[in-house]
Amino acid sequence: MKLFDLTGRVALITGGNGGIGFAMAKALGEAGAKIVIAGRNQEKNNQSITKLQLLNIDATSLIVDVVDEVSCNKLIDDTVAHFGKLNILVNNAGTNIRKRPEEYQLDEWKSIIDTNLVSMFTCSKACFKHFKAVDSGKIINIGSMHSLFGAPLGSAYSASKGGVVQLTKSLANAWAKDNIQVNAVLPGYIDTTLTRQARIDIPELQARVEERTPVGRWGQPDDLGGIAVFLSSEASNYVSGTAIPVDGGYSING
Ligand code: NDP
User: Fold this and answer.
1) Is 157 a catalytic residue?
2) Which domain holds residue 22?
3) How many angstroms separate the CA atoms of 235 and 217, rounded?
4) Which residues on adjacent β-strands are paired with residue 89?
5) Residue 129 sits in a domain of what CATH number?
6) Beta bridge partners of 244
7) Global pTM?
8) Going by C-beta distance under 8 Å and a sequence separation of 6 or more, which residues neighbour residue 21?
9) Which of 14, 17, 20 to mutate to test the pocket of ligand 1 (most atoms within 8 A of CB)?
């Protein structure tokens, strides 16, 4: 369907070698986009590219540490050097350290904000001139249920993910006249490396999420593919500044 066709578009996904990022990269590639996977771990990057190429997706990987502005700027420029342009940025790289507020070292707390929030600003800013060069752009920022809720073991994570929603609104406002749409996706509880560790740290989490989620199950990374294609495509050209939960109904169950 043309509305959702991404043929000829170039999409960059930070953290694209991980659970949600890879699923989004795959969905965008299957919709026709050329894909750049960006992560720190070369081996994970290589494995992801091999999987995408088996699906006949035109994909390459680049190394980035999203907390480093120089590294982010190089990533964006190298993406454009490789594929000639950039149309879609998925700010997905993220991390967490679970501790009670009084137990964090300040540098740990700040490292979560830098990875989950500051990196989105850095990468988005670096994309601006390249989006201007093609008169359009799409940015998808990955928030969380913790964009909405607080957590005793997640003060830094919640602060970062709450900030993602406000940053999304601000960039959407600032760049609307440049034909750049900026939206956030708020995944529910998705089965990835990140939440496998969470279920070790919080043993009751598995059952608690199943009980509260109306559809009665954890999400799988592929559950995020559809929203990534929608927010990257012409179908969403009048959608900007939103924060869309993809959570099996978790956030509407009081
Ligand atoms: P994963 O651990 O599978 O993926 C995290 C990704 O982030 C990896 O690809 C990792 O790449 C990358 N990454 C982390 N730090 C950096 C860094 N400094 N520089 C570059 N890349 C980095 O977890 P998820 O797929 O679950 O998480 C993806 C996003 O989804 C995160 O923003 C997370 O907060 C969010 N999210 C996840 C939910 C879930 O239930 N799983 C729920 C809500 C939101 P590498 O290993 O190469 O560094």
Assistant:
1) yes
2) 2-238
3) 29
4) 12, 139
5) 3.40.50.720
6) 185
7) 0.98
8) 13, 14, 15, 37, 39, 90, 92, 93
9) 20
